[in-house]
Design goal:
The protein is about 30% helix and about 25% strand. The protein has helices spanning about 1-10, 10-40, 55-65, 125-130, and strands at about 95, 105-110, 115-120, 130-135, 140-145, 150-155, 160, 165-170, 180-185, 185-190. A five-stranded mixed β-barrel has the order 5-6-8-9-10. The chain has a three-stranded antiparallel β-sheet with strand order 1-2-3, with helices on one face. The longest helix is centred in the N-terminal third of the chain and has 31 residues, at about 10-40. The radius of gyration is 31 Å and the shape is elongated.
Length: about 190
Amino acid sequence: MNRLCERAFVSEQELDMRFSINTLGFAPLAGIMLLPLWAPAFGADGNNPPRFTNPAEIDRAVSTFTGAEIGEIGGARSPADRRLRLTQCSAPLFANWHGRGQNTVKVACPDQDGWQVFIATRSQPAAAAKTRIVKRGDPMTVLVRGRGFTVQQTGEAMESGAVGEWIGVRTARKAAPVQARIERPGLAIIPAN
C-alpha cells in the first residue's frame, strides 16, 4: 500500500519534465498554424520585410501635379494618410485629375499590381474661379507634366483667363501659341497623358 501511495504522487522534477515535453511538442504545431498570420509581417521569404510607399511621396506627386502645396487653394486639402501601407512602387507615381470638377487628384502606381489613391483638393471659391487672374501679355510659366517627368518654360499669355480655363501661351517670339490650362496666376499646365 505504501508503494501505491508513493506512485500516486508524482515528483516535482518528473512533473517539470512532462510539462516541457508537452510544451515542446505543441510549439511546432502552433508555429505552423500561425505562420500565415506572421508571413505578411516578415515578407514572403521571412528575411526581407515588405517595403511600403512613403505617404510623403504621394503628397509630392499631388503637389507637383497641382502646382500648389498642401492646404493652398488648388493643392491637397490635407496630407495623405500616414497609416497607408501601399506596396513600394518601382516606377514614378502618376497623378491626374479624377472627375470633371477637378477637385480630386488620382495618384496611381503604374506597376502591374499597382494601386491608386484619391486625394481631395481645395478648389477655388465660386466667385474667385470666374475672376480673370491672367491678363493678355502677363508673363507665364508653362509646365508640361507627364508620367515621371515635368518640363517648364517661360512664356507670355496671349489672352486673359480665369483659373481652370485654357488659354494660348506663346513660349517664343515667333512660335505659335500653345494651349495651356491656367492653374494659378503666372502658372499654366499642359498635361502630357
